[in-house]
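Researcher: Can you fold this with fe (ii) ion in place?
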Amino acid sequence: MDAGTAEPLDIEEYEIGSPGHRQALARFFLDTHVEYNPDRIDWPVLQDTERARLLSLPFWQEAVSTEAATSGKVLAAAQLEPDALLRKAIELQGFEENRHARLLARLTAQYRIPIQTPPPYQPGNTESDFLFAGFGECFDSFFAFGLIAIASESGYFTPELIRIFEPVIQEEARHILFFVNWVKYRRSQLPWWQRPAFRARCAWLILKQVASRVKTAKDMAGGGDSQASNDNFTMSAHQNLGVDLTLHGLLGRCLAENERRMAPYDTRLLRPRLVPAIARFLHRVLPASI
Ligand SMILES: [Fe+2]
Ligand SMILES: [Fe+2]
């Protein structure tokens, strides 16, 4: 969708956790859904160098697997949701995640990027799986916002490909906005004595996501033996993007894009705060040369 077209919701002010919050949360999500069909995308013909750039990105397998798993987790979590309106919204998110997986499958087939079909989702602790996936999206989407903007301006991806990715990235903005509000709403519905355990579970899942990203960052910097480190994405991205992609610059861009992508939606909804706060702190303390 165009990040500037969503209408503000015409409902009264509300408190977080109130029926008004629940209604605004579900309505914002349901009303901003956009239609597109990944099976009907007109994929641009790429030059050999453009295709080689796509092929060199190390994350296709991870992206396909993550989208497929997230779709399974979200659809399973929808069945736990007692509220019909919120359940409808979560089911719609599951549909959108599945659409991301289908779009990536189409893309990788179109450009002959080798991908293994991920195994079907095996339900575990459904609510924890949903929470873990949601916190993961809060990290991944924040960085995707900045990277896609940089890739667009530098010509790293052709404008036609950027146009295809655009609704996917904006959907991730909607997903994390929905998620952080759902977490607050869900916690508010618990009896007071269950809330500390819920908070602790969330904190633990966030820490697990942080640990997993620190490991990925180390691998990408060459400290591990994963596929990511072999491809050394940070190095090749720096060269191919043709811009001075410092961590400081990337964080600044991600912060600005995060604001822009969240701006169209009901301002009374809570915004994702943790990842932008970490990024803002690092942006302030890191020298611009890093
Ligand atoms: Fe997704
Ligand atoms: Fe998502």
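Model: Folded with fe (ii) ion in place. The mean pLDDT is 87.
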